[in-house]
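=== RUN LOG ===
request id: a7f3
mode: sequence -> structure
chains: 1
length: 147
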Amino acid sequence: MEKTNVIITIQSRQCFDTLEEDWVEQTAGGCLERTAEGWTLTYLEGETSGLGGTRTTLELAEGRITLTRAGEYQSQMVFEEGRGHTSDYKTPYGTLPLEIRTSRLFWAVEDREGKAELDYRIQIGPQQSGLTQFRLWVKEKREEESK
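=== RESULT ===
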């Protein structure tokens, strides 16, 4: 399968009842690859995410996005609209049990460009974290953007 070098723009924010935090944005270089099930997108997290140096892989398949993190922070989170999934989130400070409930999932990739959108809630143990909105845009990295 052919790999394409891409530029990824990620925006996320959390909403707690009536309080909405501002969108946090980061840009990273990554790799987009076509697979038998859909697409795989891999990139290194930047320092602004709080996960600097962590390798993140998004597997985009029909009706599902699987996010896998490897490095100092490790996790695998499965997002399917209307469904809940449980997983562990391993940090340098210990392991946390997560339950993820996805209320909105969309992704589309065409001609080495695409986007993904997720709205989900995470429960860590007994603690609810509010609604997280995640938006990601991917575009092919052109040679002139490398200079």
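=== NOTES ===
The chain has no helices and eleven strands.
The chain has a mean pLDDT of 88.
=== END ===
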